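PurM-like N-terminal domain-containing protein
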Amino acid sequence: MILFSIQGSEHCSYKSSRSHLKQFATDGPDVVLGAKEDAGVISVATDNKGHRWCVVMSHESHNHPSQIVPYEGAATGVGGNVRDVMCMGAEVIACTDSFRFGNIKNNKTKWIHDGVVAGIAGYGNPLGIPNIGGDLYYHEGYNENCLVTLVTLGIVREDDIIHSYAPKNADGFDLILLGKPTDNSGFGGASFASLELEDDKKEQNKGAVQEPNAFLERHLLKSSYALFEILKEKGLIEQVGFKDLGAGGVACASVELAETSGYGAEVWINKIHIGMDGLHPSVYLCSETQERFMWVCSPDITPMILDHYN
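Structure:
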């Protein structure tokens, strides 16, 4: 039931907004990758060797988390957005944001506003990624539900794109989980983000908001960039898939990496590295602990990836 509520949530499945999203154009002569994976990719230039260079863009909202725990809600929004862009094989170059808050004369609105702004800076600054702009509006209609939208930009050469799914002929490939040890933070976050906020439940919902660690993410970004270069040199870019762990944690990441290519996956939760004792197996599988990624690769490549990160 937990897994069903996560996978079937608006946050993961877009079940109620899909019909509206279909009204947007998602293809064109410069669209390399539309609404299919962790981030969109648009061609912007061709160099003198004929290589097409692309901008990678991802955006997402962290509205409910920011309304309840403003600093952590906004900070983890930045972190997840950055990971979405990076896992496409791109170098992250900039962030921006769009905010809608309630009446700024209200003490609660000011508390949310100050926390969100601090959270954006508190995560982006350690990463060394500039925030290049944004917009901000106040209206009493947002008193009880702010809008916090984060946008991240990256750059990648078209033939260096890493996809968010298993490559062809991936039968028997390995799934590799890396990053922060799994804990119970953010458990049920996708379901929470899809519900209507209720005042009497805000305190108990705080546990559904993830905990940020920007300095760990900085190390993961740098080490992953270095691995990208190794994969390019060895001609292995098309033999791997790479995905951020966001909503639904290990469950959603493994499903999306495998199912898109027509596979299922066996997940050995006893091999997941854990940051706290006494967790139920459902937490191992569905926790939304931040600063995590998952690779899918041939067993021949697995030792190289493990050695690189370890």
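Residues 107-127 form the longest helix (21 residues).
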